[in-house]
């Protein structure tokens, strides 16, 4: 999946260059290695416009959420880092501010009426069927932003939309009809599916050991960390009714029911007690931390832990990226405070055959099967005899024996991108041999016009906006505080 995402990254970005405000109902995504200091600073200046850290972070969060919605649970922070989404978000922030600067030059402005029209579109701000100012302010406060910050972001988005509207192209009917027929070109084909799971391989311990010997560098241990640590267990205290109610009154907005109403004191009582217990436990943990810092006390626990086995939650990254000898302030893990000292980082080591045997055996079998599948494909293609499945197009969902619906969709999509009438299409664990007997334009179908029109206009307008941005890069000075890599 990651390869597909990398290939289509520019396309994904171009479809969301003007985004909605993503932080209503969702917080910022974690930032990993970037650290810009205090919130509100600048990361770049474009023309007369400053790109703040907050604006940059919102751009990243929006982009991250777009990918997460498309790819679901498979998408995570590691994939985001491999795709360099931070760099992509930075580039998008620059491009948006180039367009905003152009909007300023054209004299475009955003009125209070424009903002009001946008605000009523957010369901989170609606109460009893209409926009409610108190609800609006509360929702923003819960999401860590202010009315001023939110409406400034809204102004930027509205101005972006106004500039974009100046460059909207509409596809004409002849273009739509021609593309309608071209996109749904039809082929009459014969196919044969070869499945790697049907291939048998013989393997011996000697062959597996030989494979391991030739590929030792692929079988290394993880990074590991020599750490000292101490766990400060939760200290349960006794609190007066007055202390409990006083704490509740100060922080009651934090205690909410599933319908977002504030819990009563009685409903929140257990939560309040836990909060006070954690407060007292943290004080104890900080006192212990000072003792370790002054070397007045020695740690009672030591472990060498592999990177994937680190169990300190969001603090794992801090441990991984810190220098040897770092002593960490107490952090909360499952209602306990933990003090950690990183003694040493231990680099990966070659695994012995016994340690790597399970993975080596799997890899050996998969490699042997892949080689046999490749040889079988070549042999079958030389004297091809397949099954005719009739006329198909790019959007066909025909049942092909040996392929599920998703695999069939992948096959058809690739089939209409090939130049050879006879060949193979690799779907990972399966190879589909094909022969194109004949081709024709599909019959014109007006039901497809709207979909075709959107596709054509998206392509045209994306190209137009890309060219505009290139022109604006020469028009306005860009002062950047960090570099990005494509």
Low-confidence segments, ≥5 residues, pLDDT <50? Answer: 6-23, 25-39
Percent in strands? 15-25%
**Strand order within the widest beta sheet:** 10-5-12-11
Task: Give the rounded overall mean pLDDT.
Answer: 84
Helix fraction by DSSP (H/I, runs of at least 4): 40-55%
Number of beta strands:
13
Q: From the alpha-carbon coordinates, what is the Rg to the nearest angstrom?
A: 30 Å
Shape: extended
State the separation between the terminal residues, measured CA to CA: 19 Å
The computed structural class is alpha+beta
N to C succession of SSEs: HHEEHHHHEEHHHEHEHHEHEEHEHEEHE
Structure, explained:
With 486 residues, this protein is of the alpha+beta class. 48% of the residues lie in helices and 17% in strands. It contains 16 helices and 13 strands. The chain has helices spanning 2-7, 9-14, 53-71, 77-82, 85-106, 112-119, 133-142, 147-166, 173-183, 205-214, 241-251, 265-293, 316-321, 353-382, 405-415, 449-475, and strands spanning 42-46, 49-52, 126-127, 130-131, 186-195, 224-232, 301-306, 327-333, 336-346, 387-392, 422-426, 430-440, 478-480. The strands form four sheets. It has a four-stranded antiparallel sheet. Strand 11 (422-426) and strand 12 (430-440) form a beta hairpin. Helix 5 (85-106) crosses helix 8 (147-166), helix 9 (173-183) packs across helix 16 (449-475) and helix 10 (205-214) crosses helix 14. The longest helix is centred in the C-terminal third of the chain and has 30 residues, at 353-382. The radius of gyration is 30 Å and the shape is extended. The model is unreliable at 6-23 and 25-39 (pLDDT under 50).
